[in-house]
UniProtKB/TrEMBL annotation:
It comes from Brassica oleracea var. oleracea. Its main location: Golgi. One of its GO terms (molecular function) is calcium ion binding. Residues 159-204, 205-250, 251-296, 297-342, 343-388, 389-434 form the EGF-like calcium-binding domain. Belongs to the VSR (BP-80) family. CDD domains: EGF_CA (cd00054). It is found in: Golgi apparatus membrane. The keyword Amino-acid biosynthesis does not apply. This is EGF-like domain-containing protein.
């Protein structure tokens, strides 16, 4: 190093840029060894080349100068084919100097052109009639182009583009980037996205399903795809969910679709994930089935839980059973028809035994006026609406004595009133009529000395 220190040059030599920024530890060592760097120079040393950072925070102040070579190569010469540039960033700003490549210093102004020298000294860098490297003085036999170059080795050495040959980057889909000079497949070959390996002969498909960066939603199914992973193809939401299968999987509410719970009146309850109609579909009350396509009306009349009172009549109703509608008490009973049915006493109503004097006797259950209604004695009929007075005189059971006179009475026959013995007889008029001996009476044979003769006649049925 020169006796008179050029702080900028010295810093650049000791602290070469790496990853487009200087190393802070190296910068501190240089500053301590030189001891004369100004604050602005220190900031430039630490921050030159920073594209965007907050460490250290001071690098975001107005004192910062960025690496001017990062924009359009600082206006310096550049070989676009090999990306070799003459731009160098220093504390004072960018400097255009022709580069040194593999020990060979390019010549030129650094701004408009830089060219390889035609002759190089072998030992002390004096002129020697070879290009790049030389082994013998005879330029026809002793000059050879370095590895990665082709030419006569004397005046012409051209970089070989190994990417155009089939000897490098042989794996399928590998990307090849030509490097200056001898080809380094570790730098020039790259596996395509979704593959890992040396990029030369070996590129293995990366199974992203084994990583935690894809198919992150709960329950997502991951299917590895060949090459770069496409979560739209490789990630799938589990059954019953919809979404991109990557980070978003939303439960599908199948109840809003027409494919589940298709039976009329079925109740649908959404279930988390894949829809199970056995759990999510339910038949409405009064129906049985899978709740999906089949719901059959339950005939509660065949069960013992409805219409429990004796003699109740059960009529099945569509759907949920309503005992108020489906259960009915049998005729002659009143109640809810479910558990309570009470015998109706029709005798207390005016609809039965309507004839005058009819006698009503309540019967269990449905009223039968033929059994419950009776005409009063001396009447005949159904006992309901029709009761006709019986003319006992036409029957042979009354006024049985010969010659008795029978007079019908309203209602029950009273032979004492209805039966009369014929004239000349006395008795009950029913079975006994005895001849009256008028001779004993003073109403006959009234003349003095008249003789009265009794006629022995008697009417009876004996």
């Amino acid at each position: 190093m020169e006796t008179t220190k050029d702080y900028v040059t010295d810093f650049a030599i000791r602290c070469p840029m790496k990853d487009e920024k200087y190393n802070k530890q190296c910068a501190d060592q240089v500053i301590r060894s030189l001891g004369k760097l100004e604050r602005s120079a220190v900031l430039k040393a630490l921050c030159s080349g920073f594209r965007e950072t907050t460490e250290p925070p001071i690098c975001l102040t107005e004192d910062i100068e960025t690496n001017e070579c990062l924009q359009n190569n600082g206006g310096c010469w550049v070989d676009k084919r090999t990306n070799i540039t003459a731009c160098r960033d220093t504390f004072r700003g960018r400097v255009c100097r022709c580069p040194i490549v593999q020990g060979v210093k390019f010549l030129g102004d650094g701004y408009t052109h830089c060219e390889e020298p035609l002759f190089i000294y072998k030992d002390d860098l004096s002129f020697f009639p070879c290009f790049f490297c030389c082994c013998q003085n005879d330029h026809l036999k002793g000059c050879k182009c370095p590895p990665g170059f082709s030419g006569d080795g004397f005046k012409n050495c051209t970089d070989v583009n190994e990417c155009e040959e089939k000897t490098v980057c042989q794996c399928r889909g590998c990307k090849c980037k030509n490097t200056w000079g001898s080809y380094d497949h570790l730098k020039g070959c790259k596996c395509p996205p979704g593959f890992s390996g040396d990029g030369f002969k070996n590129c293995t498909d990366v199974n992203e399903c084994e990583e935690k960066t894809v198919c992150q939603c709960r329950g997502c199914k991951c299917k590895n795809t060949w090459g770069s992973y496409d979560h739209l193809k490789g990630c799938k939401c589990p059954p019953g969910f919809s979404g991109d299968g990557f980070k978003n999987c939303t439960d599908v509410n199948e109840c809003e679709e027409k494919t589940v719970c298709q039976c009329r009146g079925c109740k649908c309850k959404n279930t988390w994930g894949s829809y199970d109609h056995l759990k999510g579909c339910k038949c409405p009350p009064g129906f049985s089935g899978d709740g999906f396509k089949n719901c059959t009306d339950v005939n509660e009349c065949e069960e013992k839980t409805v219409c429990q009172c004796r003699g109740c009549k059960c009529k099945n109703t569509w759907g949920s059973y309503d005992h108020l509608k489906g259960c009915k008490c049998p005729p002659g009973f009143s109640g809810d028809g479910f558990k309570n049915c009470t015998d109706v006493n029709e005798c207390e109503e005016k609809t039965v035994c309507q004839c005058r004097g009819c006698k009503c006797k309540n019967t269990w259950g449905s009223y039968d006026h033929l059994k419950g209604c009776k005409c009063p004695p001396g009447f005949s009929g159904d006992g309901f609406k029709n009761c006709t007075d019986v003319n006992e005189c036409e029957e042979k059971t009354v006024c049985q004595c010969r010659g008795c006179k029978c007079k019908n009475t309203w209602g029950s026959y009273d032979h004492l009133k209805g039966c009369k013995c014929p004239p000349g007889f006395s008795g009950d008029g029913f079975k006994n009529c005895t001849d009256v001996n008028e001779c004993e009476e003073k109403t006959v044979c009234q003349c003095r000395g008249c003789k009265c003769k009794k006629e022995e006649v008697m009417f009876n049925l004996q």
